[in-house]
Structures are given as structure tokens and as C-alpha cells.
Amino acid sequence: MDDSVTWPHAWRGRWIWDRRPSEAFWWRPTPLDDRFVLLRRRFEIEDIPNSLPVRVSCDARYVLQMNGHIVGRGPVRGEPEHLGWDELDLAPWLMAGSNVLVALCRFYGAPGPWWLPASPLGTLGRGSFCLDALVDHTVDLVTDERWEAMPAAWGTAGRGNMHAFPPEIVDGAGLPADLHEPTDLDPRWAPAVVVSGRGHGTVLDRPPAAPYMTPLRRPIPQLTRIPVEPTLVESEIPVDVAMEADPHASWTGVRRGSGPRVASVWDLGGITIGHVGLRIRGATAEHAGEAIDVVGGEDLREDGLPEVAPREWAARYRAADRPEQSVTFFDPIGLRYLAVHGPAGVDVEVTFEEARYPREDGASFSCADPQLNQLWIEGMRTVDVCATDAFTDCPGREQRAWVSDAYPQILVALTTNPDQRLVRHHLDLTSRSRLPGGLLAGAAGCDFARIGFTMPEYSLHWIRSVAAYWRYSGDEGFARRMLPIAEAIIERYELQRGPSGLLEDFPGWVFLDWAQVDRDTVTATHDALYAAALAAYASLPGAADVSSQTEQTRVAFEALWDEERGAYVDAIGDRGRSRRMSQHTNGSALLAGIVPAARVERVLRRMTDPASLSDAGRMVVTETSADARAEGRIPTFQYEPPVDFDEECDVVAAQPWFCRFLHEAYDALGRPDLIVESLRRWRMIPGNGTLQEFWDAEPGRSSRCHGWASSPTYDLTTYVLGARPVTPGWKTLRVDPVPGALGPLSGHVPTPHGWLTVEVDEGEVVVDLPAGTQGSVIGTDVGAGRSRIAWSPDER
After folding, report:
1. Can you list the positions of beta strands (E) in 344-396?
2. d(CA 300, CA 293)
């Protein structure tokens, strides 16, 4: 729905649940249990209205169905105080006569990758649901004791892991057979219970209420519900399984054998994210209670079965004595391959529905190089699959809203999707994760927002993300609202400036990249990223003058210069100056503009072509967490010296994530050729349709779809096609296609004013600028509409 409905501040609907937990206060906590609940309201209606808007909230998540049709899911992730609410329209699914409205709700109990619990207060904070309708509508559907409730036939098993909540277990026999039938008289239904926040004499049983004191309206649309047709790869596979309570634990022992269980393997045709479902036929009384397990992952093992690591997603359905039955599991998962194993004689079919942020079709890029064209497509698809109610790192492993990983995705979204709401929402969401000292949490609205430390440079990437949004959107009000948060980050950074004039011993985890960049008291890449963030901050409307901070960093950075080798070293500490060199330190320094002009070519040569130098250095891809994961060395390997690395001449190579900053540095120096050369390092796995976390990794040790690897889409549109805004909001723009052997170029780029079209062929650049814009095309001023400009690529 749109925002045309004006809702009163106070809700009429009351918080309800299937039970009233014992009262809790800050001095008397109570346990938080993972719990699934069904809530429903049966009602009569004679004349179906054109619209029946309702607003809905739930702690923690819900799926709402009207007469068996899914109306919506939510709410979006966020801080507990800002528990979100959604506006939905029930009218399309109403029927004259009897109707049934059903909510399946889940309270997770423990913090996880996409949810944080509130501090319980009174009987609120351990699961609740609220629905509100306008008073002047035909049916009064507000939540109260007229609703019915029962514990859902959902549960969990096992402990889960750092990437996910425990596996879902669904008891088919416990599912109401006629859940969406008005005549259903299942005796387990009981009146819903009103729950309320309570403190110092105040009782609040409807929003806004503590602990959800500042509820926020959903600022983004509902996610897609796109059916994906799985392909059956192999069926009737006899497998030996030692069945355990946890379906993942059972899967670890699955082997091809003689049975008695049988498995099937399914391929979704590429990596996607959404809801897995099962359709079961042929179950009889002898199969009642039998487990039908489903697992999924991004790779296949050598035996042709899915590799479920590192996410280890699994779920279980216990069959009922019904000839036909189905289930859709509650939480979305990202994967490509699925396997089901169950008792022989039962036919099981996999279903899947993609759930991602909607993107309007239209954006495009094309050149004469098929590999680059495919890279552009897969970068866009990577962001599609990583974009849900926020930009997440990856769909198949964590689904956390990392502050850093969003930066490349935001750039891709701004150049491929005319809808900028998710970008704005993500920046808002992450801004609310601010820690008392001024920095942001590493990831927002999740368990990692409460881990006692942060990755400090992620806050710098957030400043650069805000600046990018301002540049592409022209949304001055939002940029100014974010300004104090950026200034608090800078203030906190200045506290860490030591006697050297550089950042010293910054607490937390200075992440930088999954590469073995040297780190010490002074970590050069960190200082250079800070200088780059200061420049981004300075571009915001109303920004203070930070030139003195930038100059202080520039002057102090000289301590890292190695004249003999023509590069900046990585660190300074108690053991003196590091000898290690990296693309990270030198690329960041170039990006920040703190490299004297006379040194630029030497630095570029060292960081892009060390083999051509007299010392014949190498560009070395060092270990990543994918290598260290198998040995349990993830917390320490970044601080270890790289293996087979000569610190006198070799250079630590950036992984796909940090290439984001290298490419921006190359662009600032007018070297698009280096960007194209760097893009050719990306490896696309046939059939996945997405870009992976590292240059390479063994199955099960990394993500085959990772948002921070999506940079090529932005780079090809911005640096190769050469289309970019000059003034915020694209009021003026620039088109400077890269010369070279890429043949004809074309692209379609969204702006707040409409689509920009660019076509480049021999001797001519044709542009179509949307109304309200003007631009410079290869140095020629043009206005809105279609223009043709002669050019000679060889002369540029």
C-alpha cells in the first residue's frame, strides 16, 4: 500500500498472544523462549470494500493470511525500541460472507542475525502481535479477546549457530486441518490473551508502549513473492541416515547406501533467497510422525548431495496421516541446491518462493566483451539476492545487515534501481545502531550490535555511503539529518589520534579486508580510509570544515613512505616500521588524495604491476577466513605473516571487497584501464548467477553470493559507460565513456528525473537525458532530450 492512509498516533488494537507470561521488570527478568503462535479472527462481511487497510506489528515476526492468501510478512528488522509496523490491504482477498484472518507468529527468544529482543516489561517482550483497522471501516478487526489463539505446531531443535537460529520442526499432525475455513472448530483454539507493558503504575496494552516505545512505519515495500520452479536433479536415492532430533545433525551422517530412506536433489537454477516449501503425497497411517527432512546449500558435494556448510540450514516436517499435505517454512534462506530425504513410498516435491527487495526492470549495460556484460548482470543479481529488508552480507550464511558490506550494494542499487527507499532505510537503520561513544555497531538490528566492540572503520564506510546517497538522490533533508551522526564518528576518531599524528591503538576489530594486511599501533590503511571519509563528509550539505584533520593525516602519513621501494608500508609499532606493502594501504592513500603528485606513478606501479619493477615483486593473494576456517584460525590469521611472501618486494592483493576502494582510487587518477584490468579478476561460477565472497574458496567455506563482491556493476556503469551525477540528484551529469577495445557501449541508468540512456559507437555518442537535467557529454554541454555528439575514442 502507499502512504495515503493517515493513521492516528494511538492504536486501537491491543497486543495479544496465546498466553500471559509472568510479569518481568528490569530487576526481575524472566526466560525468553523460542515460540510459534497461531492467531486468527473469523468475521462476516456482506459488501466488500474497495480497500480494507490494516496496520500490523509483531514481536518478533509474522506472516498474515486472509482466507488462505498471504497478505504480507514483517516487520522489518530494527532496534527493539523501534519495532516496526506494516500497512496492508485485506480487500483483495475478502469474500462475501464468512472470512478468516490468520497470523502465524514467531518469537525467537534469543538474539540472532536479523533480530534483537527487547528488555521484557510487564507481560510484553516475550512475544506479541497487534493489528489495527481504521474506525470508519466496515469491519472492526482490531486485536483483542475476540481473536482466537493456539500454540503453532512449529518448534526448533538443536542450538543453531552464529549464522542462524535453530532448525524449524513442523508437526503435520498438529497443524489445524481447516485453518482457513470459517467452520473450523478445532478445540485447541482459545481466546487470545492481552499482554501489556507495565511500569510505575502505567499500563500500556497497545502501541506505542514500552519496551517498543517508538514504533516506526515500514518505509519500504513488501518483499517479492516470486515462484521459482526447482529442477529435479536426482530422485529415489537410497540413503543411510542415523536420525537425530536435529535435522542438520542427521544430515551430517547421510550417505548413499541401501536405505531405508530415500533422497532427492533439486536445483533452483541459481542462487536465490526465499521460503522453502514441501508438498507431500502418498503418506498413510504407517507414515504418521515420520520425519521428512530438507537441507540446502550453495554447492554440491562430490557425492552429488548438497554441501550445507557454512550456514548448515535444515528443517523437518513430521508427516500427518493425510494423503496430501504441504508446509512452507517460516524463515527465508539463500541457497541453490536442496535435498529431501524421507521414508520410501512417500512422494515429496520441493517448492520455493523468492523473497527479495523489488527492483524495477530497465537498467542495462552492454559492451563488446561478453564477460564484462555477464559480470554486470551478476553483480546486479548479487545485490538483488542480498537485498531484503536491508542490505545483507549474503543470503545463504548470515543475512546480517553489516554496515560495511552495504557500501558497494548501495552504489549498485543507486545505478540500477530507480527506487532509492531501501538505500535510505538501510542508512537510517544502521544510524540507529550508534554506540554511546559515537561509532556505529558493525551490524544493525542483530546480535552483533551487542557484542561489546565494533569494527571502527565500518563507521567510515557509513559516512561514504551517506555521501553517495546524497550525490545520487539530492535528498538534502536526509543528508542533513545524518550529519550529526557523521560528526560524532569524526569526533570519536579524533580521540584516537596519537603523538604520531595518526590513529594509534584503535580499540575493537580493525577489519580492513579478509587479507593479511599488516596491523600494529598505527595501521596505515585505517588512516587513509579515515582521510577518504573526511572528504566524503565534507561533501555533505552543512558539513563543517575538516581540512585541518585531513592535513594532519596527510603530513603524518609521511612516516609510512618508503622512498627506496616507492610505496607506503602497512604499519608502525613497537617493532618499528613494517616492511609489508599492500594494495590496501597504497590504494587507500591514493583514494584519499594524500599521495604527493610526484609519487603517484611509482605507487601505482608498485600496487598494480610489481613484477615489472627491478626487484620483480609479486601480487600475492594471502589467506582468507575461507582458508583459516578449517583450522579454527579465523580470529588470529589476519595478524599472522603471510606464507610464501617476500616482504621486501611482494604486495598483498586486495580481495573483491577492498577492490571497491582501489577502483575509486583509479578513477580519481583518470585510469579506467586499471579498473577494467582489475574487473577481469572476478570469477563467475557457471549457473550461480551471483558473485562470490573471495577470489576462490573450497565449497562450504565461504559464500557464493556476497554483497560486497557486487562492485563490477557500479564500476561498469560509472567508469566504463562513464555515466555519473555531477551535482546532487543528477541535476547536472557527466557522460565520459572509456576509450579502448571494448567496442560499442550502451546503458540505461536510473535518475530521480527518469532514465538516462547512453549509446556509444564509432564516431558518435548518443544520449537521452531526462527532463530536469543537463550534462556534459565528452566535454560537450547538452540539455534534456536526445543529443548526438561526434567523438574519436583514439584521441581521448
Report:
1. 347-354, 364-366
2. 17
CA 634, distance to chain mean position in Å, is: 22
Question: How large a percentage of the chain has pLDDT more than 70?
Answer: 99
Buried b (16+ CB within 10 A) or exposed e, 222-240: bbbeeeeebeebeeebebe
Instruction: Supply the pLDDT for residue 613.
Output: 95
Mean pLDDT of all residues in 262-289: 95
What is the C-alpha to C-alpha distance for residues 659 and 663, in angstroms, rounded to an integer?
6
| Pairwise CA distance, residues 724 & 735, whole Å | 7
DSSP 153-174: SEEE-S--BTTBPPPEEEEGGG
Let me know if 202 is exposed, middle or buried by CB neighbors in 10 A (0-12, 13-18, 19+): exposed
3-class DSSP state of 600: helix
> How many Cα neighbours within 13 Å face the side chain of 675?
29
State phi, psi for 748 to the nearest 5 degrees.
-130, 120
726, three cell numbers: 555531477
Cis peptide bond upstream of 358, omega within 30: no
Q: What gap in Å lies between CA 386 and CA 710, rounded to an integer?
A: 10
Tell me what pLDDT residue 594 has: 98
Please name the residue ranges forming H helices in 146-245.
none
Instruction: Give the span between the Cα atoms of 259 and 101, in whole angstroms.
Output: 43
pLDDT tens per residue across span 461-476: 999 999 999 999 999 9
CA separation for the pair 220, 319 (Å, rounded): 37
Local structure of 745: helix, strand or coil: strand
**pTM of model > 0.90:** yes
Backbone dihedral angles phi then psi of residue 149, each to the nearest 5 degrees: -145, 150
Residue 690 pLDDT > 60: yes
